[in-house]
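Q: I'm writing up a methods section and want to include an example of the input and output format. Could you take the sequence below and give the corresponding predicted structure tokens, formatted cleanly so I can copy it straight into the document?
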Amino acid sequence: MKKSPLVRALMLTAALATMPLLAGCNSDQMALATNAKANQPVSPKLVAAMQEKNMDLQSPILVRLFKQEAELEVWKQDRTGVFQLLKSYPICRWSGDLGPKIREGDRQAPEGFYSISPGQMNPQSSYYLSFNTGYPNAFDKSLGRTGSQLMVHGDCSSRGCYAMTDEQIAEIYALGRESFFGGQRAFQLQAYPFKMTPVNFAKHRNNPNMPFWKMLKEGYDHFEVTRQEPKVDFCEHKYVFDAAPPPGSSRPLQFNASAKCPTYEVRPDIAEAVREKDKQDNIRIAELVAKGTPVARLNTGIDGGMNHVFASKIPDASTGLSEVPEDKSLAVASFDRAPGTIPPTVNPPRPSDNLLVAAPAESSASVAKARVASASKDDIGGLLAGSRKPGNESTASARPAPSAPVSTAARHEPAPRPQGGAPKAAETKQAAASRPPLKPSVDAETTSSAPARPSGMISGGAPVVSSNSFDSRFSAFR
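A: Here is the clean output for your methods example:
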């Protein structure tokens, strides 16, 4: 059933009425029902892409982020219950280095698995629109990691966030909003240093964050072989994926990020597919190392990265720690249209002569010690010794049933706005009024100021997730 934009906005306002809206990067208190930015429809072009992929407008989504590639992927569940890639978005700016966030003020964008609920969606952001990543999750907290206000937002400015253009975040925000209307209680955000491929693991083999990244790769592989959102739990200061009670057990599993793991098992078909993928990946990594694959430099001093599509549009800009595809160059990328408006205050990363060095003759133990992303407070190697093996990149023959999403995110208080490039005035109602309230769809790959076109729901096919009543879908959220 179609709903008018006003009715839909009022429904969402009612759902969020009992919880304080995240201020995020803003101090305005504008009602969602009157917020045109937050209620922009999904573009007809993207709706048509959903139809081609057998997806419903309001089916669940899943988001993956990759720093090195500077890409954000939106995956969406089709009518068979399997997640497919809907669209990839180039990231305009991310800050820090490859590796997880450790402490408040380190400028690191987080890495890990997070859950985004309706209460983390911020229609009142100083950065056009945003959603809170939910950092720190239970795993981060168990290691004493600190930080707040880590967002995915617009305005192409980052201090520990993943920054898109305003046009991009408007579309991503709308996709999240529609999934909540369809009954999804929270969507999963997976943030990675790079795509978890053998080539990247060979290139970064001497990085002290490698044990942590191997742990993240296990969850990455669970999604790769099942195309289902992996169930995420935490115990013994580590991630656990798709854990289920052992046969014959009638008691639900109880997890605590700082406590001993309960006895659990992983479905045999998933476990076998992940083991096989891991085996093939490790064989390939060993081959690449034996061939002398160059090693990524440590401690480059470069602050984050920018997708080549954006860097090519800024004089003397660089992609920083993000890669330019082998078949591209900044000169070639300059012919591509930027997906949105690049603000004049953008602060691109500084260039580097070479991010790779020849493969070292000495062992990795002699590599200069960098900031270590420990997966344990004492011994990261010992931490992973008893964990299940991560999986591989091949496709499983059987597709498991969808698993329930996990929500571990918390809401945070406003943080000061980052400074990058030329200073920007703090957002007020007057400042917000000085810029266009709506951004055009990024589907057109243009920076024109034409308003977004209206769209409707997709007809045909039974809903993947039962809607029940709107109020009951959000009754558990404060």
